[in-house]
Amino acid sequence: SGNCLSIVIVNGTKNSTSLRVRLPVLVFALEVLVVVLYSVFVTYDDQTNALLQNNKTQPLENTVYQDYPFFADIQVMIFIGFGCLLAFFRRYGFGGMVFNFLTATFAIQWAILVQGFFHFYYDGQIHLGVINLINAEFACAVVLISFGAVLGKTSPVQLLVMALLEVPVFGVTEWIVVEHLKINDAGGSILIHLFACYFGLGVTFILYRPSLNEGHSKEGTTYQSDLLSVLGTLFLWVFWPSFNCALTLRGDDQHRAILHTFIGLSASTLTAFALSALLSKNGKLSMADVQNVTLAGGVTVGASVDMMISPAVAYVLGMLGCTACMLGYKYLSPFLARRLRLQDQCGIHNLHGLTGLISTIAGICAILLASEETYGPSLYQTFSYRLEAGLGRTAKEQALYQVVALGSTISISAVGGVLTGLVLKLPYLASPTDEFCFDDELFFNVPLDEDQASESQEPRCSETQITNHQYILQSKPADDVITS
Amino acid sequence: SGNCLSIVIVNGTKNSTSLRVRLPVLVFALEVLVVVLYSVFVTYDDQTNALLQNNKTQPLENTVYQDYPFFADIQVMIFIGFGCLLAFFRRYGFGGMVFNFLTATFAIQWAILVQGFFHFYYDGQIHLGVINLINAEFACAVVLISFGAVLGKTSPVQLLVMALLEVPVFGVTEWIVVEHLKINDAGGSILIHLFACYFGLGVTFILYRPSLNEGHSKEGTTYQSDLLSVLGTLFLWVFWPSFNCALTLRGDDQHRAILHTFIGLSASTLTAFALSALLSKNGKLSMADVQNVTLAGGVTVGASVDMMISPAVAYVLGMLGCTACMLGYKYLSPFLARRLRLQDQCGIHNLHGLTGLISTIAGICAILLASEETYGPSLYQTFSYRLEAGLGRTAKEQALYQVVALGSTISISAVGGVLTGLVLKLPYLASPTDEFCFDDELFFNVPLDEDQASESQEPRCSETQITNHQYILQSKPADDVITS
Amino acid sequence: SGNCLSIVIVNGTKNSTSLRVRLPVLVFALEVLVVVLYSVFVTYDDQTNALLQNNKTQPLENTVYQDYPFFADIQVMIFIGFGCLLAFFRRYGFGGMVFNFLTATFAIQWAILVQGFFHFYYDGQIHLGVINLINAEFACAVVLISFGAVLGKTSPVQLLVMALLEVPVFGVTEWIVVEHLKINDAGGSILIHLFACYFGLGVTFILYRPSLNEGHSKEGTTYQSDLLSVLGTLFLWVFWPSFNCALTLRGDDQHRAILHTFIGLSASTLTAFALSALLSKNGKLSMADVQNVTLAGGVTVGASVDMMISPAVAYVLGMLGCTACMLGYKYLSPFLARRLRLQDQCGIHNLHGLTGLISTIAGICAILLASEETYGPSLYQTFSYRLEAGLGRTAKEQALYQVVALGSTISISAVGGVLTGLVLKLPYLASPTDEFCFDDELFFNVPLDEDQASESQEPRCSETQITNHQYILQSKPADDVITS
Fold it and tell me: Which of UniProt's keywords are assigned here (chains A, B, C) (predicted)?
């Protein structure tokens, strides 16, 4: 692909897709912003500040040894798991893996500041340790999930702007839901998955491209891209227990979170294979199902992952989540795309939305059923709002708070997504034209493959394709010419 | 490949390879079985049960912090290491990586139950924590090693049935060898590698396909598949110390296990490169050697991995194991395939059988040489059966137990494998025909590669190939037609 | 590629590139050397020796639990991170990934001995634990970085010889710099990165090949090789904090090292994307920049990574290092290659040299600014040479020591590299001819790709290419013939 692009395809600077000026300008502006705010507001916390250590400090009791292993695992999920998973398009492997890298990097930097102001701010400063990085990784995961809805249809400039706007909206929601509503959501089914899903849907609703509903020649996969994407799935699958347990209470709560996540994923994986064969016309497995639907269980157990739900229930949740996710891919996604302008490129509504809803309901049930008989005194740790000396909420009251959290998360994220989408439609953001969606040629110097190199004398595309382009000459050709 | 398959190639439902009905039926049956047994029998252990924590419980002393890092490392080995390693065939990358995913997932679920009944059952319940998952991973590794013998020749339905049967046979063997014979085998050279090897050989003996001895057009590798497979090797290599030390005694025993595994692997890697060049006709390295033979040292140090064998001996064991493994690939495997009906697709008899035998012998030597002079009081921890207050065995007696364990493991596994092979030959299990061995087209919707897409008007295969197929029409064509 | 190589291309045994004799001879000689030295000199340390454990030993306080997680992370970096990163050439993926595997394995074995004599030798023995392996991994990283300068231009025989010579030179330098000059260099910016860089440049200076300055047909990348290489970058990126903190003081020092490394990498990643777009002619991103320049920040924070430099300064260091690295790739590397005979294949002078220099300067500044006000009593731990009861150095004196360390490291490594280069030019080391640089065909049995297989009747290369070869017949053809 790209053999026939040796033509000028711009219609003026405003809609140019050259990154030469706009990406550096945006990035340097963001970097200056970040470095100024870091230098003014960010300092070390009591685990990283040398001044606060004394003779009684036990170096091996530094919290870094509790937090860093989980941080590293989630890093693998974000940069390698997501990166490979998103590289499934035929000619958008660079975009999937590399824009994920760029967006994730900025999202974490930015979330350190935003979440810092909400959660780690005292004495006029944000106090920093690895625990902040774990929190920032969650905010980053939110951005990357939303990214899935618009994969291949957005420039890196747009993605950075999206991260810039999404992280604060997420920060506010987190502040409301965690600090004020005080909900149970250890695995982030509501706060992370549902937020990310509806934010992403909001963005893609605005960025609707009717022509893509007709199918796009580059939207398919190749043998290699499918393998790379499954590799990403496997990294996410293997380290998902670390994701779901990283911020739970230490000890048995964290232990249960690991067990339940493993069991949930395990159940959803088996189910995904069964349904993939059952729902295919020719009785064969589809790699897209293996790449996505197998992971549903990790989300579905999320809201109750640290509770005493029993291993069997974790298993059932995995099966249910997987079934909803699979049916969503099969029947709901095409409907949403055609009727509701919701072109959800990776199907995040199935993998994070439907599963998140089931998880929320399961979480409410688990809260209602929680009793001293099952938990003993631990009840008032896992469900600390029930302490009479504290908030003194009943289980039923808490169920209401969970519902309120659900409603507010979905509303804020959807509205935030729509508004962000409107910003992304502004000019100068290098938004790709329809025909260059899912095509690395647009933003990367793509190497000629060996076969292409040896066959370059035979153009592969017809004249009709070329006539789709807009032939508008421009003053700075070197900046905006796309050559193959 | 697959451009010329637009034909009906079934001979009745009995031998159909469509997964549409049989895979979901089997998976849902297994899932119902698992979920019923989990809900009746599986509960939390004292590290995961909230009710059993009290004021004196130190959350950070929960065993999850000792076990989870090793669990996660072995997860990487099983899902990513094995997955990539098995993806080496030219057109069977999906099968290698994805059937590994499916089989491993079910094997662990199932092993939690089977091993639970043998090792974690009291008060009428199986008690569950991450330690059970580590044990289940070992059972899973056994299944995956055996899978290597029949890679590309079995349907996912057959693989699930194999896991269903192999895990209980392994469970019984483990119960005999660990609980009753009480052998030293920290790295599982006898229990895991030899069991898996002879079980797999038993299966492949029954599933013998004479036509494959003539070579198969799809049995080769590609540049990309070789790279992916080496990547799998590297993941196995890097995390193998975690595998060999996960169930040793904590402290210096575990420390030695890590050292010895690293040194053994290191020695076998160097040796593999030397022998690969030496034994090739043109003085070039073979990727198959790099993918497999480099790992031999990890198995060879297994049975004595926690003992005071000295670093130099670990090194020599790595060299010996590698040499046996390499000679096995070169001379023994072709002989076994042609004369003994043992078509061992990945050469597990070399990598796990021969090395396991050497490891067993080395383990016996190390047991015989162990003395208070070398170990001090620790002698009665690493070799607890020598405690007079306990079993009071002498080293020589123990050597006999090791030999008995070796014999019983090999016999049980070989018989179990043969019987399992007979079950796998039953109809309705979607066994692939000879010509569709090693071919993802059979069980996957394989994307057309770009080149194929643009050249689809020129069929690549000759008429003679087509005439090999069986032209039998069938009532439910949509279910059983293979289209390219 | 390789379809037209069915010809004899040797000019006598002396310059033959067959590995059949020379690789096994060298490897077995090295293995005998290693195993003899291990058996005479290497024993267990007090954490791995069973004899030294007693009733008071707390197994869970064994240092293996502090060291092994970092060891494993760095293993991933060395074998998987470097391995994938170096696989970027179009037809040298096997060489990049597999020679990295071979060289790293030997370098670690060898470094255990060399560093053992300098740092872990007492009572006439080298005492071994996982801590030695971490140290050996650093020596190994040095060799692999230097390898980057000569990637694709050296045989595995030459690479082993290089490791054999480089590790002792590094060991001496480490001994001078760490044990005698006692410098601050937690992340190894001086000792690891600068040493490796100038050693590698010394080697490549001697191995200069004028014809490669004209460009080489196989020097490019493919879509797949670029993706694999980025995957390697991501593994290095994710685990770099473990590399920079593995040998710092436990507690807050290690915590800061993790934070700073993450922030530095994060800043250099954003900057790399901006500069890649800014400096490209067509406003597109280059994968080579994503693969290399993003990592610059990890090196730049190295020398001061455990100090109280503040998060903002870590950010600025990442930006600075990245900028220097990028400008180096753009302007300095071509100059060095054409004018100074420094063909630096992977641009290690940019990623490890320039960044290492900046890091050294930053480290000196941080040393000069360190005060009790900022550090409290910890000052005399992080900067232990300032203890009056010890060396009693002032900050300014220490700055001088840092400069001396910088100078001696660069001089020793450059001279060592040049001498090593001279050794590598000796005959019988299977050095590739110019036209077979960057070509796996030379040292590997490369599988025919599917397309090639089906098109093998149409040769792809012209007669003019063939006439470049030397047609000299030889007595042992089977050993030295290269057939496609």
Answer: Ammonia transport, Cell membrane, Glycoprotein, Membrane, Transmembrane, Transmembrane helix, Transport
Q: Which residues 433-462 on chain B approach chain C with CB closer than 8 angstroms?
A: 451, 460
3-state secondary structure of B122: strand
Give C206: exposed, middle or buried? Use CB within 10 Å, 0-12, 13-18, 19+.
Answer: middle
Q: CB-based contact (8 Å) between B315 and chain C?
A: yes
pLDDT tens, residue by residue, C426-466:
999 999 999 999 999 999 999 987 555 544 433 333 333 32
pLDDT band at A12 (very low <50, low <70, confident <90, very high): low
pLDDT tens column, A157-198: 999 999 999 999 999 999 999 999 999 999 999 999 999 999
How do residues B37-93 score in pLDDT, each as one tens digit? 999 999 999 999 999 998 899 999 999 999 999 999 999 999 999 999 999 999 999
Stretch among B81-90, B152-161, B464-473, C31-40 having the lowest mean pLDDT: B464-473
CB of C34 within 8 Å of a chain A CB? The answer is no
Q: How many CB pairs under 8 A join B and C?
A: 215
Q: pLDDT category, A89, cuts 50, 70, 90?
A: very high
Q: How confident is the model at residue C227 (pLDDT cuts 50, 70, 90)?
A: very high
Looking at CA atoms only, how far is residue B216 from chain A in angstroms? 21
* Set of chain B residues whose Cβ sits within 8 Å of the Cβ of A255: 47-48, 62-64, 129-130
Give contacts of C 345-374 with B, CB under 8 A: none
Residue numbers in C near A2 (CB within 8 A): none
pLDDT of residue C272: 98
Q: What is the mean pLDDT of chain C?
A: 90
Count how many pairs of residues, chain A against chain C, have C-beta atoms within 8 Å: 217
- Contacting B residues, span 244-273, partner chain C, CB-CB under 8 Å: 249-256, 258-259, 262-263, 266-267, 269-271, 273
Query: Which residues in chain C have their CB less than 8 angstroms from residue B460's CB?
Result: 454
Instruction: Chain C: give the shortest CA distance to residue B17, in Å.
Output: 26
What integer pLDDT is reported at residue A452 of this predicted model? 53
Q: Could you say which residues from 111 to 150 on chain B have a Cβ atom under 8 Å away from some Cβ of chain A?
A: 128-130, 133
Domains and CATH numbers, chain A: 1-17+443-484 (no CATH), 18-53+61-436 (1.10.3430.10)
Kindly state whether A329 is in contact with chain C, defined as any CB-CB distance less than 8 angstroms: no
- Please write the tens of the pLDDT for every residue from A403-433: 999 999 999 999 999 999 999 999 999 999 9
Asked if C379 and A50 come within 8 Å (Cβ–Cβ), the reply is yes
Nearest chain B CA: its distance from A172 CA (Å): 31
Mean pLDDT over the full length of chain A: 90
The closest CB to that of A378, out of B50, B106, B451, belongs to B50
